[in-house]
Design a protein that fits this description.
It is a single chain. By secondary structure, the chain is mainly alpha-helical. It has one domain: Up-down Bundle (Cytochrome C Oxidase, Chain A), CATH 1.20.210.10. Helix content is 74%, strand content 0%. It contains 17 helices and no strands. Helix 3 runs antiparallel to helix 5 and helix 14 packs antiparallel against helix 16. The longest helix is centred in the C-terminal third of the chain and has 37 residues. It binds protoporphyrin IX containing FE (2 copies) and fe (ii) ion. One protoporphyrin IX containing FE (HEM) binds next to helix 7, helix 11 and helix 13.
Length: 473
């Protein structure tokens, strides 16, 4: 007899749990490689030739993308059955795909670490369909094909659940975002020889993900958690969600132009990119208003304080990282000086963490206590530890952002502003920035401590095992 979990509306929601657990394991890996690189920035030979910087960077960013994808899938497997008001179409398929994706992910990371990249390309037949070698999309072509297969199976499973069940705005927005995610990934298979064209398509993946369809996924997860923890009417929440996603798409699609300034594209992009991307902070700001408004209008005190904190925190941090730090360098006359500087890294870190790492943790914070059979919320001690994790990670990431911003400003000052001939070389500039890179490393260590705290919060004493609770019921 299978054990019932009384805290789940539908038992098939349980497939979300391995996705969440594995996502957090990869998150730990991501941070370890971030720290390795942070050290290599100041001690150049650290771990050379065992783990060169370019390999650590690839592992760091790929683990990020993959753990977020696991997080999104887990979130969808939890959210869609509840919204559709029926069991998941096929829990078995969800578990099979979990193992396929996990195995492909682990093998790919091992490939990066154990084989020189060119060797990996040769081993995996990259010359048949060359797709490797572009930032974030370094995966061997066979891994990319694997990702597409997993995505198709996933969309089929979620889609069938939706088709047969209740169709809510939240689940339709999430589905649209997930389909967009899969469709834009297909541009990673097109790798034109011409570098300018190559850049266009590369940004169709990277930009249209984070400043387009992923915002839909974020918005729907946020709306779902807000309904649950505030008890505010669905109609109100849905109106907000419509406005947010409309603004995200209106500004984000043409906003892609802010990456076409210097790649050899027509000059009109200087204007289109600047104007539309300058409006991209608006949907992020709307999410802040949304979360705080709903929480202040709440109809009930939800016992899971940590989940409300994550829900509000993700909107504020995303607005700062994507909205404010994005705006800082998005106008062409500014970007002319800041392009590809440490300022870009400052923005990339706070935006990815604030929007996507934190929304996944919001969902995990809400769903995990139920998935683990604990009830609506973990005990008070576990929540306190989780809240410590929240603040340590978030404030450390803000500190990382501030140090990188300072480094970026000095870098622009020394390397980009002076007239030709008077500018410092790239490497001499980096030497001048060492103090900021040390400080970034220290903040990174605190981030890891925060992550450990967060993971430790899952160790709850005195929990009632699901089986016992079910027997008692
Ligand atoms: C959550 C949403 C966002 C995420 C995760 C994100 C992430 C990133 C990352 C990782 C990069 C570096 C890409 C590379 O390797 O070259 C980047 C570049 C950039 N982002 Fe964002 N971003 C977001 C939203 C925004 C917004 C809303 C704006 C504008 C208001 C913006 C403006 C820019 C600009 C101008 C660049 C190019 C920087 C350069 O020229 O070096 N981003 N973003
Ligand atoms: C211990 C904390 C971390 C440290 C020390 C760290 C360090 C680094 C370093 C050194 C790079 C390479 C920059 C370069 O190429 O010059 C990098 C890239 C990157 N990291 Fe981290 N990282 C950390 C945490 C994170 C987190 C939590 C996220 C997101 C949730 C993240 C997202 C990224 C992204 C998106 C890039 C590519 C940035 C770009 O292209 O501009 N990192 N990180
Ligand atoms: Fe962008």
């Amino acid at each position: 007899m299978t054990i019932m979990n009384p805290h789940l509306k539908f038992q098939s929601q349980a497939v979300a749990k391995p996705y969440f657990v594995f996502a957090l394991m990869l998150f730990v890996g991501q941070i370890l490689f971030g720290l390795i690189m942070g050290l290599q920035y100041v001690v150049g030979d650290f771990l050379f030739p065992l783990i060169p910087f370019n390999v650590a960077r690839m592992v760091h960013t790929n683990l990020l993308i993959v753990w977020l994808l696991f997080g999104f899938m887990g979130a969808a497997y939890y959210l869609v059955p509840e919204e559709a008001d029926r069991e998941l179409h096929s829990p078995k398929l969800a578990i099979i795909l979990f193992w396929v994706f996990a195995a492909a992910g682990v093998l790919t990371i091992l490939g990066y670490l154990l084989v020189p990249y060119a060797g990996l390309a040769a081993m995996t037949g990259n010359e048949l369909l060359p797709t490797m070698g572009r930032e974030f999309l370094e995966q061997p072509t066979i891994t990319k094909i694997g990702i597409v297969v997993v995505a198709l199976g996933f969309l089929y499973n979620i889609g069938m659940t939706l088709l047969k069940g209740r169709k809510t705005t939240i689940s339709m927005v999430m589905m649209t975002g997930l389909i967009g995610l899969a469709v834009f990934f297909l541009f990673s298979f097109y790798n034109p020889e011409n570098l300018a064209r190559d850049k266009y398509y590369w940004w169709f993946v990277v930009h249209l993900w984070v400043e387009g369809v992923w915002e839909l996924i974020m918005g729907s997860m946020l709306a779902f958690v807000l309904i649950k923890i505030t008890g505010v009417d669905r109609e109100v929440i849905e109106k907000w969600l419509y406005v947010i996603i409309a603004m995200a798409l209106i500004t984000g699609i043409l906003g892609t132009g802010h990456h076409f300034f210097w790649i050899g594209a027509p000059e009109v992009w200087l204007w289109v990119g600047s104007i539309f991307s300058a409006m991209e902070p608006v949907p992020f700001f709307a999410m802040v208003l949304f979360a705080f408004n709903m929480v202040s209008r709440r109809r009930r005190e939800h016992p899971n304080r940590a989940a409300s904190l994550w829900a509000m925190g993700t909107t504020v941090t995303a607005f700062l990282g994507a909205g404010v730090w994005g705006f800082l360098h998005t106008l062409a006359p500014v970007n002319y000086y800041t392009h590809g500087s440490q300022l870009t890294a400052a923005h990339g870190h706070l935006a990815f963490y604030g929007a996507y790492a934190m929304i996944v943790m919001t969902m995990i914070s809400y769903a995990m206590p139920r998935l683990r059979g604990l009830g609506e919320a973990p005990d008070a001690r576990a929540q306190t530890v989780e809240i410590w994790g929240f603040w340590l990670m978030t404030l450390s990431m803000v500190a990382i952002t501030l140090f990188l911003t300072a480094a970026g400003v000095v870098q622009v000052w020394l390397q980009r502003m002076p007239a030709d001939g008077a500018a410092l070389s790239f490497m001499s500039t980096v030497d001048q920035l060492a103090v900021f890179f040390w400080l970034r490393l220290v903040a990174g260590v605190f981030f890891l401590i925060g992550l450990v705290c967060y993971l430790y919060s899952f160790r709850q004493r005195g929990r009632v095992p699901v089986a016992v609770a079910a027997a008692a019921a």
